[in-house]
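Lab notebook, bench 4. Still working through the backlog of constructs that have no structural model yet. Next entry is a single chain of 253 residues. Request: give me the structure tokens for it.
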Amino acid sequence: MRIVSWNVNGIRAIMKKDFLPAILRVDPDVICLQETKAQDDQVREALADLAGYHIHSNSAVKKGYSGTAIITRKEPLSVTRDMGMEEHDKEGRVIAAEFPDYFVVTVYTPNSGSELKRLGYRQQWDKDFLLYLKKLEARKPVIICGDLNVAHNPIDLARPKQNYNKSAGYMQEEIDGMHNLAGTNFVDTFRHFNPEAARYTWWSYRAGARERDVGWRIDYFLASPVLLDKITRTDILDHITGSDHCPVLLELS
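Model written out:
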């Protein structure tokens, strides 16, 4: 099973770039997308030329905002949208596909905002998202992927000192939420197999950040510990462009 996760920063916009050839070269069994910025019918329309896949999407009530999708070669046993929590379920941020041996959940975690206006909400989201995942894990192992909008450790961003407790995505409250998720309950697969690799998945559009590799690692594959011995590859596909994020990859035997 080869799974790719990518914050595309607008599915309709990225389809005008190199999205289809790039994805087809990777040849994934499952494609997880975040920030589709489209309604369900618009997602299907945008992906009309992606033959041989089943498309499942979750759109925000607000048009052109947020949104996630899971696209699969084989039809999942089931697909569920949202967490069943009214305060979180209006922005299309979570979609889960059930397969015989595990769940695949893709998530677009809320950003605390440039002025940190949503930091309090973000803390509640982190707690509730973990509860949701643990309920799934009580049934079978879970793979979580997506844009978690946080750098977990100093190695996960190019300029930790300048951003710590000053910038959304590297506030201590967000780091604590990520630690509860990836340091206590699930495994950050890339960091597990690459403990010293300073590689990034998001770069600002400003000041040539991507060309200078001044980035953040905020896109992840997390997994239930029981799945670790099935993982054969985890990677950051930073050669693929088209969004301010790059895709991340997980392969399982």
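Notes after review: The chain has one domain: 2-252. The CA atoms of residues 22 and 240 lie 7 Å apart. Flag for follow-up if needed.
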